[in-house]
Design goal:
This protein is α/β, with parallel strands linked by helices. It contains 15 helices and 17 strands.
Length: 436
């Protein structure tokens, strides 16, 4: 049968992995897809690198726009990244009637609504399994495997860099800055790690999963994003003593008031499986009303794990290449006309539990003043630890875990407690999720 011809835009780490795996497993992939899948042209500014990776097995060009206009190309794989030229290339490929496979979570989270509308109008597929959690097939699970369920919530460790840093901080009791340097030396963190450590990368991925889970539009601009750069090793140690691990989680929940969309460091009970995901690994926990909690675990980055997801998309597109567009799986799981607008809850209205660490003077009556303020804001305490001060020390730490309460109540309580003369500096506040 006639092969499907693929134009590959970008042959860096992931592009090289895709070329290698597709070539290595060509026969197996063709058996699954029903016809051969071959990369016929590669576009990259570094032609020398492209030549080295491909070994002259396909045509090379430094003009990506020529590839998306090439009538001999059936599927365009976009691995350039970013929001600018990548968006232009994807939209031109769609306009030219070509299917698109992309790993570009930033592009989809910010411009996905426009891109999917264009693809729907043109009757082509935009596939993006590799955009979230690397080689873990979480998009397919959400779009197809769990389609009988009303998804209640998703909580994911979806950035390997931050998970590696938090694992090292806990295991070695080292400060954030020290572990970040180690992560950069090992290649887990970029020279500029801002997108990773400040939670932006995780928020891009969470935005995509939330839209698929709840059948609503991409709302990246409304997500609450909080990274790990200000997290202290002290809090990781205290959390451990209380039976919790701290992970950077992407959390999206459907509530009666709207959808929660938030990324932040989170305390999780140490007995939960997801709390024990260490190093640069990813894991996504999905709660469906029928199936209950399901966990998806694996490598969230890397050349071949990500290539695995890209090629899975190529196989899917090849199978559905000639199918009537109405018989394909919708881009965001729900039929386009059935998508709904759901409000994204501001963080102030989110209800969860909290970890609070206060530095206070070691004298009678301090705890009574603090608990009175908490009670006034309808915040009840679940657990508390007061560290015994060292000899001669005049201040001590109090750590409190609260029952569930609304974020704005905690904001108000913190403002009042910080105003007490016996409280030193700022209160550390982290959110806590039981994930039941």
């Amino acid at each position: 049968m006639k092969p499907i011809n693929v134009g590959l835009l970008g042959i860096g780490t992931v592009g090289g992995g895709t070329f290698t795996v597709l070539k290595r497993n060509a026969e197996e992939i063709a058996r699954r897809a029903g016809r051969p899948i071959q990369i016929t042209v590669v576009a990259d500014k570094n032609l020398e690198l492209a030549r080295e990776v491909t070994g002259g097995a396909c045509r090379l060009t430094d003009d990506a726009f020529a590839v998306v206009a090439d009538p001999g190309v059936d599927i365009v794989v976009e691995l350039i990244g970013g929001y600018g030229v990548a968006k232009e290339l994807v939209l031109k490929a769609i306009a030219n009637g070509k299917h698109v496979v992309t790993a570009n979570k930033a592009l989809l989270a910010t411009h996905g609504n426009e891109i999917f509308a264009a693809a729907q109008a043109k009757g082509v597929i935009v596939a993006f399994e590799a955009a979230v959690a690397g080689g873990i097939p979480i998009i397919k699970a959400l779009r197809e495997g769990l389609s009988a369920n009303r998804i209640e919530w998703i909580a994911g460790i979806i950035n390997g860099t931050t998970n590696f840093i938090l694992s090292e901080m806990r295991d070695k009791q080292l400060p954030f800055a020290t572990v970040l340097k180690e992560a950069q030396q090992l290649g887990y963190a970029e020279a500029d790690p801002t997108f990773d450590i400040e939670g932006v990368d995780a928020a891009h991925k969470l935005t995509i999963m939330s839209a698929i889970a709840f059948g609503c539009s991409m709302s990246f601009d409304k997500a609450h994003i909080e990274g790990i750069s200000k997290l202290e090793a002290t809090d990781i140690k205290y959390a451990e003593q209380l039976g919790y691990r701290i992970k950077l989680l992407g959390i999206t929940k459907r509530t009666a008031e709207g959808v929660e969309l938030r990324v932040h460091p989170t305390l999780i009970p140490a007995k939960r499986l997801i709390a024990n995901v260490e190093g640069a690994m990813n894991a996504v926990l999905v709660k469906g009303d029928a199936v209950g909690p399901t966990l998806y675990y694996g490598k969230g980055a890397g050349a071949e794990p990500t290539a695995s997801a890209i090629i899975a998309d190529l196989v899917d597109v090849t199978r559905m290449h000639t199918a009537d567009p109405w018989h394909r799986v919708p881009h965001l799981a729900f039929q386009p006309e059935a998508m709904i607008d759901l409000p994204i809850l501001p963080l102030s209205e989110v209800i969860t539990s909290y970890y609070l660490r206060l530095r206070v003077e070691d004298k009678p009556g301090v705890l009574a003043d603090i608990t009175r303020i908490l009670a006034d804001q309808q915040i009840s305490i679940d657990a508390m630890v007061q560290r015994e001060p060292d000899e001669g020390e005049l201040q001590t730490d109090i750590i409190m875990l609260t029952h569930q309460t609304r974020e704005k109540n905690v904001d108000a309580a913190i403002a009042k407690i910080e105003g007490l003369s016996v409280v030193t500096g700022k209160i550390t506040r982290l959110r806590l999720e039981e994930l039941l």
